[in-house]
Structure formats: structure tokens, C-alpha cells
Design a protein that fits this description.
By secondary structure, this protein is α/β, with parallel strands linked by helices. The protein contains 16 helices and 25 strands. It has a 9-stranded mixed beta sheet, sandwiched between helices. Strands 7-6-5-3-4-8-9 form a 7-stranded mixed beta sheet, with helices on both faces. The mean pLDDT is about 95. Bound molecules: adenosine-5'-diphosphate (ADP). The site of adenosine-5'-diphosphate has 22 residues, from β14, β19 and β20.
């Protein structure tokens, strides 16, 4: 027997309409290339979203078209998120930190039609545009007076593009399963893979993560997403803040700048902010160097990489409580979040810290399990460590335009490539990674690409790259090399050899020579053994 309840679609449009009605005076403050402090409100932003939707329709965009953004976190990017998705197009956020070949691959694979670009990334696209096969034109995110000279084809300035359009727009009734946004992850081997979110998955993730034991967003909270909007929808906060009426503070291009972050926190009374450990290290260093305080700042959500204990302690001194979250692009992204159970607050400091450093408990809406190599589920005893697998309505069931992937298992679970333990209270802790990638400052480095580049050197027999701990970037690549018997290459020369072959920030800081690199039974380099061998190494 079916229930008698209304089956309204779960769409991003419903979040927009709700925020417009209920929280129209809630503020959005942004740093942009053309304004150090731009101030608007949800009401104004959604008026402009209507203008933008009319302008996109004028371009002849059709349902399902992919419209790309290469942009920092600010109010214009916020408007793009809503105008594109709620018009029935797909908002494809591209990571401008990728190197040009990857951006070209991603934009062509997605068949992007139009690209909205921050002035800072115009030169990047000028170089790439001849190879962007589907793009019809570019809209630069600025006003006419700041519009750069550009050779980009069909270049327009954003403010002029929307200026003459009415704010009234007839938003389409969308199927909740229709695609809303697209984000590529390079946290896998091979080419970057697209994760195509739906309106439904986005709304459910928003509801799940807004819960009290998770982000607990509310109209009393001032939220600063330092995690980029080109990185899994800024962990969903663009929707979560609108659904809960939280004031939004956007740092624009100043994400890694401790001074600007501290100023924004103090001027705008930021209470909750989200970012990778590297960002919080930059803030803490600035606070310590200058003696600045951040009284309004209560919660820092840390994700994307493990949180070092030293960072947690440094933030404690400033009375900022760190909450670790774990997730992936494939998971919209949040799967677990760390809030202590009431009794844990009474534990001795070091025991409490052990819990606080874990990746946290499941968020209602996602399911997880750990399994051994044979796929048998392991107990949640805090000891057994196994492959971490997840499922749920905001976990992707396939990569965009890909038939199958090894990570998508026949029984419906998704293998995350992480290895974890889960304790009897449900706290998951990441202990290792089976995927052969390195995460530095929140961004992926392909160890295979670095190895292939190094193997091009005539003095090398074999090269392998692993991630090792780094105080600023959490993890950095280390090049491990077996040299030819009669050769005697210098470290510096090997590292210099990589320059120009891979992105500069992918080049390892160090190189070590070994007699032999360990292999698995099938002849592959055993990264697990290498990591064990270099367990003591750190930058
Ligand atoms: P995000 O950076 O938003 O988490 P990505 O898809 O780029 O999303 O990266 C996901 C991967 O990052 C995870 O599979 C895991 O390897 C790593 N990761 C994310 N959060 C944590 C965490 N809290 N602790 C350890 N590793 C993490």
C-alpha cells in the first residue's frame, strides 16, 4: 500500500525559492578580483540569478547543456550555481589548479558549451581555447570597467551580460533526478572522472549535512566556505547555507591567505568555516605571528585530508573547535562527520583527542562497511582495518559517460579506495589508501604521471612515487629511484628533469636512491611495502 503524501520534487529550485522567501535579507559578503568587500543578500543574489537565467536562455542553452565555471568562491559563482542548475542545465565546476591538459580533457569530455571565468584564469583559457572543441564562448566574471583585454572567442563581461535582463524568470518544473552539477575528480588512476550530481542527491545531501550532529547550520551561524566552490560544491555549503539562512562569507582568491581569512572572520563575525588542513595552518600561523584573535570563530570543519594533532591543539588555544569530516567527490562529498558523544567530553584530554582526530560517525543517509580482501565484512571493533565501502542516495552509481569502474561493485557498494577502522561507537578512522594518488594541500597528484615522467630519464631503471607527511601540505610526493648500475645521476638533476613535464607543484621535494623497489606477486610496484619502508621519512 502506498502512502498518501505529496510527491513534490526535491530540487535545488526549492532551496532557492525557500531562501528567497524566508531569508531574503541574509547577507552574502565576498572578496572578488574587482572588489575587496562586496556585500549583497540572498534576496539580491536570487534577483540576479533570475537575470542570469534569462541571459543563459538568450544564448540558446538547452536542457542538460553543460555550462562550465572556472572561478573562486564569491557571489557571482553563487548566482551561477543556482541559475544554471535551476534552469535545467548542468553547472560544471572546473578546478583551475589543474594543469592545462587536464582542463582541456575535462571540458571536452563534458562537452561544455559556455565557460564563466574569473579574470585571473583568462590567460589559462586563452592558451587552451584552440583545443576546447565544444565551447561556444566565454563570460568573464567582472564588470565592464574591469574587463580585461582578451583573445577569448565571443568574450563577454558578466555584468553587461545580465544587465538588461528582467529578474523574473519562469523556472522549469524539473524532475528531481535530473542532473544539476558536474565535478571531475583526479583522485583515481587514469583520466579524471566526472561525477554527475542530481537535484535529488544535492537536496538530500543538504538535509543530511545540515543535521544537528553534522554541520548544524542555522540562521545564527556565519559560514565561510574556504573549501573551493570548484571542489564538490564547496562541500555542499552553498545549498546548506541557503536552506538554513546562514550568512555566507566568501574569500574569493584569498583562500590561502591567513591575514585575509582572519580579517574576514573578525569583520563579518564568522562562526563556522570549512577547509583543508593547509588553510587552517595558514590561519593559525598568522594568528600566532601577529597575536591576532578570532573570537567569533567557534567551529573549523577540516576535511579532504587527515587533521594533524598539532593543528587541532593550535586551534584549541584560540578556542576554535576542529571537527573532522570525511568524504569524496563521489559522495557529494560528506559521508562522516566528527561530533563527540556527550560522555566523551568527560574523557582525559589525550583519550578525547584520539576520538576527535577520527573521521567521525556516519551521517544519516549514507551507509558504510569495511571489508577484507575477500570482500567479507569486518567488525566495528576499532581494530580490524579494511577497505572502506559506501552506498546511499548521494553516492554516485557510475562515473559520467563511463560504462563501468572497478570501484562500483556488483552488489551496489562503492569502494572508496580508503582503508579504515570503525570503532564500536561508529567512529571511522582512515588508516591507509589503496588508490595510488597523493593529496597535497587538498589537491590530487597522480603518482603514476610523476613516475612516468621520471622514467624518461636515461639514468633510471625504475622509479616510484609515494606520499609522505609534510607539515604544510599534509602530504608531498617523494621520488624513489633505482639508478642504472653504471650511472650516477644527482638528485637535483633528476628533479630538474621533471620541470616542464608535469605541473610544477607535482615535482617532489626530494629523491632517494634504493637498490631495489619492492613488487607484488603480479609484478606491480608494492606501494604498501614502500610506504612501510619509508614510514619514518617526513619532510
Ligand atoms: P574531498 O577533498 O572533498 O574530501 P576528494 O574526492 O578530492 O574529496 O578526496 C577524497 C579523498 O580524500 C578520500 O577518499 C580520502 O582519501 C581523502 N580524505 C578526505 N577526507 C579525509 C579525512 N578526514 N581523513 C583522511 N583522508 C581524507
Amino acid at each position: 500500500m502506498l502512502g498518501d503524501m505529496m510527491g513534490d520534487s526535491l530540487t535545488i529550485t526549492s532551496i532557492m525559492n525557500f531562501a528567497k522567501q524566508v531569508f531574503s535579507s541574509t547577507e552574502i559578503v565576498s572578496v572578488t578580483a574587482d572588489n575587496p568587500r562586496h556585500r549583497s543578500t540572498f534576496g539580491e543574489a536570487f534577483e540576479r540569478t533570475g537575470q542570469l537565467a534569462n541571459a543563459l536562455a538568450r544564448l540558446g542553452c538547452a536542457e542538460g547543456d553543460r555550462i562550465a565555471t572556472l572561478a573562486w568562491n564569491d557571489y557571482r559563482h553563487f548566482e551561477l550555481y543556482y541559475a544554471i542548475s535551476c534552469s535545467g542545465y548542468v553547472c560544471h565546476t572546473i578546478n583551475p589548479r589543474l594543469f592545462p591538459e587536464q582542463i582541456i580533457y575535462i571540458a571536452n569530455h563534458a562537452e561544455d558549451q559556455w565557460v564563466f571565468v574569473d579574470p585571473a584564469f583568462v590567460p589559462l583559457l586563452e592558451q587552451a581555447q584552440a583545443q576546447l572543441t565544444s565551447v561556444r564562448g566565454y563570460i568573464v566574471l567582472t564588470d565592464q570597467s574591469n574587463m580585461p583585454e582578451t583573445s577569448l572567442a565571443n568574450a563577454m563581461c558578466y555584468e553587461t551580460f545580465i544587465a538588461d535582463e528582467p529578474s523574473q524568470f519562469d523556472w522549469p518544473e524539473l524532475d528531481e533526478n535530473s542532473a544539476s552539477s558536474l565535478c571531475y575528480t583526479s583522485g583515481t588512476t587514469g583520466n579524471p572522472k566526472g561525477v554527475l550530481y542530481s537535484h535529488r542527491s544535492t537536496v538530500l545531501h543538504c538535509m543530511g549535512t545540515n543535521a544537528g550532529d553534522v554541520l548544524g547550520l542555522s540562521s545564527a551561524e556565519v559560514v565561510m566556505p574556504v573549501v573551493p566552490m570548484f571542489h564538490v560544491n564547496a562541500w555542499g555549503t552553498i545549498y546548506g547555507a541557503a536552506a538554513s539562512g546562514s550568512k555566507l562569507v566568501f574569500p574569493g582568491p584569498k583562500m590561502g591567505d591567513g591575514e585575509t581569512l582572519a580579517a574576514l572572520i573578525n569583520e563579518e563575525q564568522v562562526s563556522l568555516a570549512l577547509g583543508v588542513p593547509t588553510v587552517w595552518l595558514a590561519l593559525v600561523n598568522y594568528l600566532e605571528e601577529t597575536g591576532t584573535t578570532v573570537k567569533s570563530f567557534k567551529k573549523a570543519v577540516v576535511g579532504g585530508a587527515a587533521c594533524p594533532l598539532s593543528l587541532m591543539k593550535a586551534m584549541d588555544k584560540h578556542e576554535v573547535s576542529i571537527h573532522v569530516g570525511w568524504g569524496m567527490t563521489e559522495m557529494s562529498p560528506l559521508g562522516t562527520y566528527n561530533t563527540l558523544l556527550p560522555w566523551m567530553h568527560e574523557l582525559p584530554e589525550d583519550e578525547k583527542d584520539k576520538y576527535r582526530l577520527k573521521a567521525g560517525r556516519l551521517i544519516y543517509g549514507v551507509d558504510m562497511r569495511i571489508v577484507d580482501e575477500a570482500g567479507v565484512a569486518l567488525p566495528w571493533d576499532g581494530e580490524a582495518s579494511g577497505r572502506l565501502q559506501v552506498r546511499g542516495p548521494w553516492v554516485c552509481k557510475a562515473y559520467y559517460k563511463m560504462e563501468a569502474s572497478e570501484a562500483h561493485l556488483p552488489d551496489g557498494w562503492f569502494d572508496t579506495g580508503d582503508v579504515a577502522t570503525i570503532d564500536p561507537y561508529g567512529y571511522m578512522a582512515i588508516t591507509d589508501r589503496t588508490k595510488d594518488v597523493i593529496k597535497s594541500g587538498g589537491e590530487w597528484i597522480s603518482s603514476i604521471d610523476v613516475e612516468n615522467a621520471a622514467m624518461g630519464h636515461p639514468d633510471i631503471v625504475e622509479a616510484a612515487v609515494i606520499g609522505v607527511p609534510h607539515p604544510k601540505w599534509t602530504e608531498r610526493p617523494l621520488l624513489i629511484v633505482v639508478k642504472k648500475p653504471d650511472a650516477n645521476p644527482k638528485k637535483e638533476d633528476l628533479l630538474k628533469f621533471l620541470d616542464g613535464k608535469i605541473a610544477r607543484w607535482w615535482i617532489p621535494e626530494d629523491c632517494v636512491f634504493v637498490e631495489e623497489i619492492p613488487h607484488t606477486a603480479t609484478g606491480k610496484v608494492s606501494k604498501k611495502d614502500l610506504r612501510d619502508q619509508f614510514r619514518e621519512y617526513s619532510y
